[in-house]
Amino acid sequence: MHQTSRSNVPVLLTLLLLIFSAVSGCMPFADAAPLTRTGFYFDTFITLTLYGTADETLLDECFSIAETYEQLFSATLPESEISKINRAGGAPVSVSDDTLSLLKTGLKYCKLSRGGFDITVGKLSSLWNFSENEGTVPDKDLLADAVSTVGYQNISITGSTVTLQNPDTSIDLGAIAKGYIADRMKEYLNQNGVTEGTINLGGNVLCIGPKADGSTYRIGIQMPFSDQGTVAAVIGVTDQTVVSSGVYERYITVDDKLYHHILNPGTGYPYENDLLGVTVICQDSVDGDGLSTTCFSLGLEEGMELIERLPDTEAVFITEDYRFHCSSGIGDTISFEESTSPVPAALRMFFHLASI
Predict the structure, then answer these.
(1) Alpha helices (runs of H) in 44-173, residue ranges in sequence order
(2) Which end of the chain is more exposed for a tag (fewer CB within 10 A), N or C?
(3) Which of 181, 20, 9, 166 is closest to 102 using CA atoms?
(4) Domain 1-341 has CATH 3.10.520.10
(5) Would you give the distance in Å from CA 46 to the centre of its chain?
(6) Cα 203 from Cα 244, distance rounded (Å)
């Protein structure tokens, strides 16, 4: 018997942004409504909320930025630079500085994860197609063929040109593109005098500056598999990003087995490592993107060891028993939502690296 269960993650994550506003205490400007807008790019909802300004052109430009980068980075739009590289049959393709920068960042995390995170999983991603998959596990032979095309070492960069050494390799930047776009939006807003607000790209929440009243932004971590976007814990941040990767974001269930969207490049199947999710808190959203997936691929122990080595970076790992494992520097910036969390009290425990 085949059963299908797909998470409506874009809607839930947009709801989480609304929830974070509710738990953040007093509004930054009690006498002025925030400027906010939601759009849909990269198969996800984008919500911007700005305080202390009524200039709608700031939102116009931010969504123009999102559209521009989608035209560069999308693996599904036929005229994007990534699609041109994938279709070039191994011929060199000249790309923009932004595409070059994002590719280099992606390769950094490919190497850091020893290939556990790999931006050349395009053919695997297409086979699983979690955005539209109604409950079908790809044929194992097709998966094996797709795995043979994966290998970030196949990407060669010379100057501003990109060449795929294996012409069958296919790049997919979906795991880090949102973070890069959020960082560019924040950069633009900072340059135009915006000092307070949030940028939410499908759950990648990037906070702009400190709040006017001196308090922190409070960002919710979703309870895995909650169909109502329940907040399990809240992180307090200032001028940082909070990025999560989890098995509950996009998945199917076939014959009582869950298949999620975080794929193991070595097997072609989703990772099975006792993790439900990883949330990373750091400065730049593109790094949060890269690290959350990298840490998921490494698993709890290796992932936590990596986080502990990185400056100004913290993380929360959620294991299958619904235990929350926090990096050593997170301190009292995290709190549980006692009234909303369905997790039994006995499982609401935090562990630093030394306790693992």
Answers:
(1) 56-73, 81-87, 97-112, 122-128, 140-147
(2) N
(3) 181
(4) yes
(5) 13
(6) 7
User: Coil, helix or strand for 144?
Assistant: helix
Q: How do the domains of the chain map onto residue ranges? A: 1-341
**Side chain identity at residue 286, one-letter code:** V
Can you tell me whether residue 47 is helix, strand or coil? strand
Query: DSSP letter at 223?
Result: P
138 secondary structure, DSSP code: P
Chain segment 105-129, per-residue pLDDT in tens: 999 999 999 999 999 999 999 999 9
Collapsing DSSP to helix, strand or coil, 91 comes out as coil
d(CA 154, CA 175): 18
Q: First and final CA of the chain: distance in angstroms?
A: 39
> Residues 268-281, buried b or exposed e (16+ Cβ, 10 A)?
bbbbebebbbbbbb
Residue 346: pLDDT band with limits 50, 70, 90: very low
Question: Which of 46, 285, 73, 66 has its CA nearest to residue 183?
Answer: 285
pLDDT at residue 228 in the model: 67
Nearest-angstrom CA–CA distance, 162 and 160: 7
**46-61 confidence digits (pLDDT tens):** 999 999 999 999 999 9
pTM, to two decimals:
0.86
Provide the sign of the torsion angle of the four alpha carbons 333, 338, 339, 343, taken in this order: positive
